[in-house]
Amino acid sequence: MNSRRPHAFLLMCCMMSSWIGGLTLPSVAAQTTQEPRQESVGKKPKGGVLLKTATGKNPISAPLLNTTVTMTISGLIARTTVSQEFSNPSEEWAEGVYVFPLPNQAAVDHLRMKIGEQIIEGQIQERAQAKKTYAKAKAKGQRASLVEQERPNIFTTSVANIAPNAPIIIEIEYQEVVRYDQGQFSLRFPMVVGPRYIPGQPQDIEEDSSSPQGLGWAPNTDQVPDASRITPPVQHPSRGLINPIALHIDLAPGMLLQNIESPTHPITLTKQETNSYHVSLQDVSTYAERDFELIWTPLSHETPQASVFTEQHEGETFLFLQLMPPTSSDSKTITIPREVVFVIDTSGSMGGKSLTQAKAALSLALSRLTPQDTFNLIQFNSVTHSLYPIARQASGSRIHEAQRYLKGLQATGGTEMLPALRQALTRPSDSEESLRLRQIIFMTDGLVGNEEALFALVQRELANTRLFTVGIGSAPNGHFMRKAAQFGKGTFTYVGSTTEVQEKMNNLFLKLEHPALTDITIQSVDSTIAEILPDPLPDLYNGEPLTVAFRTTTLPTSITITGKHGGRPWETTQSLIDAKSRGGIAVHWARQKIAQLMDQGTQKKDKTLLRQSIIDLALKHHLVSRYTSLVAVDVTPVRPEAQPLHTHGLKTNLPNGMKQEAIFGWPQTATPATAYLVIGSMLLCLTWIWSRRHHAHG
Q1: 10-residue block means of pLDDT along the chain (698 residues)?
Q2: Would you say 640 and 141 are in contact if contact means Cβ atoms under 8 Å apart?
């Protein structure tokens, strides 16, 4: 054998081994859940899971979860109670840990633990202290519950010392503002945390004990230090659906409506007195596997031009304003040449219905291009690939070429979003191209764990580009969609099914093709306004209202709003004299302020002062945040010291329409672990063969 070949072969082996060993394999962990006491055994009845103890003996059942959601929508404010019933069907004492989603702007401010007739109110504490309070009660055998925020739209409920064959009910209460866009009000309630793609190198628990450890299927990594807390174990689809959910909504819109509908679930609608309605799920066997959306459309003459609410809280005045800007329905489609960059997620999690929806949406978008536009198409999974090296003129032949390219796309591999976003944000060096209006249309389910790195990239590289996100699938990452669009000075759109593609994309086209209201400022004559949120005020697009929250010492009589509409100066004055008094405005302002402080933390390395500001604000307004949690403890110990406590990470369903291969097989949301194991085995065999031949010829 040539003396150079063994060295070359060994070098290849080392490179392959290093490449394989450096990859995170969440797909394997997804099946084992990394919990000794949670290895599935045998077949389970629908809605339950049989689990082993740490010794592998005495199979026990994990706690069962039933959720009831009750909403009250009054005008623009929605108040929601999520009731989670943890039932322990086993003869062992149990602790249940459940990772679940809430709306990304939810202001969580109340926790109640119900044990029979007993109700224990939760207290807000700094997160580290709340964990200590919970751990101490858990060790003493006291029933306790803890609600923590992992992301603005991902929370964890922990319930300790659930007695054998007994339930504990946890009630979580939050507030949010309904969305208004294109003449319709809407509210979205997420039901399942979709499996996140976790990039980066796994962290050594002993070396980095500061990283919060969870019961998820992915280890913490250097890019996602809390991965184990946002990747709950997933129920294999072959075992049936779990986590039943009931939903009841009392809707008092404050105006006459022409339509109420849900594009995601069949609903039962009952009209009540004074133009209010009761909405419930039609199917009593509904499970937490897809987001719920409710849409209500007012009669055209009932659409409010302005809504103003105010609240007095601890010596300060808080104000909420939603104002309709001028419409562009009579304006001509923009004539400024555009450079449009389409980015489509083709990772494993997009397999099935999601990619079908994304292709349909992108195909429609391509058909709207004009010959004066230039465009490019970027797809990404584990790697990033673009149709052209740079944007090309949108001629008929090129659009036809792009349509053919689009049809051939398939879902496979991981969700390496950062390189694709970086490439899309790269601005052209050509002077003519740089004069174009540059827009990025980003289509994805957003199921990644490294959102902060993506937000930082957008803030750093955006320049004059505008980023529009399109959330695809039954359970997209709403936090990523909204925040990426906010930092990108664009808008976000949800497409939940192929039947929505035409309407939702047409609404997006109106925003892309009509001038926005830009450079918005708000002033009062007496200058009494202390703080306006969001800050800075965003650009507005066709059909969008201006929604702001104020904190002030004295309510001004009026405010003046200025901006540019279609490049021309625009101004309006809004009276505040008739502002209606109502609760929840201070909480809304505080939630927006916390979000603003968290956004500042995306760019700053030293977050100590920001962290303390967030803690102080959250404690003052009794809000759950990244640094504060709600904890409730029953003072009476109930679990005997001799009885062990079994901890269970409750499973979630795979989002509706997502192929099971996305996490249980290959291609996957994560890396193809099975393929890597095969490659590794082949390398070992080849090494052994080479070694035998080397010795034989030696």
Answers
A1: 38 36 35 33 36 48 94 96 97 97 97 97 98 98 98 98 97 97 95 95 67 86 95 93 98 95 97 93 96 95 83 92 76 72 96 92 94 96 96 96 96 95 88 78 96 95 95 95 96 91 92 86 79 91 92 88 89 90 95 94 76 96 97 97 95 91 47 39 49 50
A2: yes
In three state form, how does the secondary structure of 494-518 look?
A: EECCHHHHHHHHHHHHHHHHCCCEE
Query: What b/e string do you get for 181-197 counting C-beta neighbours within 10 Å, with b at 16 or more?
Result: bbebbbbbbbbbbbbbb
Tell me the C-alpha distance between 236 and 9, whole Å. Answer: 40
**pLDDT tens-digit profile of 334-389?**
567 899 999 999 999 999 899 999 999 999 999 999 999 999 999 999 999 999 99
Residue 229 domain-assigned (yes or no): no
Domain interval for residue 564: 307-329+523-530+549-621
667: cis peptide before it, omega within 30°?
Answer: yes
425 and 312 part of one domain: no
Distance CA 326, CA 517 (A): 8
Tokens found for residue 680: 């590794």
Amino acid 567: pLDDT? 79
The answer to the question of residue 654 being in a domain is no
Contact 658, 30 (CB under 8 A): no
> Is residue 215 within 8 Å of residue 626, measured between CB atoms?
no
Q: Which two tokens stand for residue 601?
A: 């933390």
Would you call 601 helix, strand, or coil by DSSP? Answer: helix
Residue 33 near residue 667 (C-beta atoms within 8 A) = no
Q: Who's near 155: CB < 8 A, 6+ residues apart?
A: 99, 100, 101, 102, 108, 147, 148, 149, 172, 624
Look at residue 308 in the predicted model and tell me its pLDDT: 92
Beta bridge partners of 101: 154
Number of domains in the chain: 3
Query: At which residue do the structure tokens 């997502």 appear?
Result: 658
Pairing of strands 374-380, 338-345: parallel
Element (H, E) at 365: helix 353-367
Would you give the DSSP letter of residue 333? P
The pLDDT assigned to 433 comes to 61
Q: Which residue has the tokens 């230090």?
A: 225
Determine the pLDDT at residue 206: 56
Domain membership of residue 346 (yes or no) is yes
| H/E segment holding residue 386 | strand 384-386
The closest alpha carbon to 42, from 54, 60, 28, 27, belongs to 60
Q: Are residues 497 and 400 in the same domain?
A: yes
200-230 pLDDT per residue, tens: 999 876 554 455 689 999 999 999 999 999 9
Orientation angle between helical segments 417-425 and 451-461, nearest 10 degrees: 10
SS3 for 476? coil
Let me know whether 348 and 420 are in one domain: yes
357 in the same domain as 321: no
* 390 within domain boundaries: yes
Number of other CB atoms surrounding residue 374 within 10 Å:
24
